[in-house]
Design goal:
This protein is an alpha/beta fold and about 180 residues long. The chain has a single domain, classed as Flavodoxin domain (Rossmann fold, 3-Layer(aba) Sandwich), CATH 3.40.50. The chain contains 6 helices and 5 strands, in the order βαβααβαβαβα. Strands 2-1-3-4-5 form a 5-stranded parallel sheet, sandwiched between helices. Helix 1 links the parallel strand 1 and strand 2 (about 35-40).
Length: about 180
């Protein structure tokens, strides 16, 4: 049994990327894994100020929702990020969380397998490339981990547009096989 953490970074109600995250989580649960689905909706996540105190103390100077998320990620075997694509890039809240997790850098971590789920109104194959590249920058800092899969669902702009889309089943299967 693996510990799987799925981080849904959309703040929108009826989010298309959150729907993919839910299906990935359901698939991982069906495979017998312990799953934690973390939604950033309603979470307090302050911006990193670059003080680097975390590199000395192992903890951020800010007391918000990030330390609990970070601890879940550190203890996970599998981490799945779900984000809408805004202006051909990951959501700002995803990038902010990644920056704030800088305190993880000197720590030991369990995660090896990273997955990315992305959605966008545009459907061209190049649309999620920058989001994947941005996440790859984070992955590269954790040399024992790698991107195991990326699922992109384009053509879903309005809330709930993803309903009935075959990509939901693909997300479920990706989670089941994680």
């Amino acid at each position: 049994m693996k510990k799987v953490v799925v981080i849904s970074t959309s703040l929108r109600h009826a989010s298309n990327s959150h729907a993919l995250a839910e299906q990935f989580a359901k698939g991982a649960q069906a495979a017998g894994h312990q799953v934690e689905l973390v939604s950033l909706r309603g979470k307090e996540i302050r911006f990193c100020v670059g003080c680097l105190a975390c590199q000395q103390t192992g903890a951020c100077v800010f007391n918000d929702d990030v330390p609990a998320i970070m601890e879940s990620v550190l203890q996970a075997d599998v981490v799945c990020w779900a984000t809408p694509i805004y202006y051909y890039e990951m959501s700002g809240q995803m990038k902010t969380l990644i920056d704030r997790m800088n305190a993880m850098y000197p720590k030991d971590y369990r995660f090896r397998d990273i997955y990315l789920l992305t959605t966008a109104a545009e459907a061209e194959p190049f649309v999620p490339q920058r989001a994947e590249s941005g996440l790859q920058g984070w992955i590269d800092c954790y040399g024992k981990s790698s991107l195991k899969g990326h699922l992109f669902c384009g053509g879903v702009g309005a809330p709930g547009d993803i309903a009935g889309n075959a990509k939901l089943h693909e997300a479920y299967e990706m989670g089941r096989n994680a």
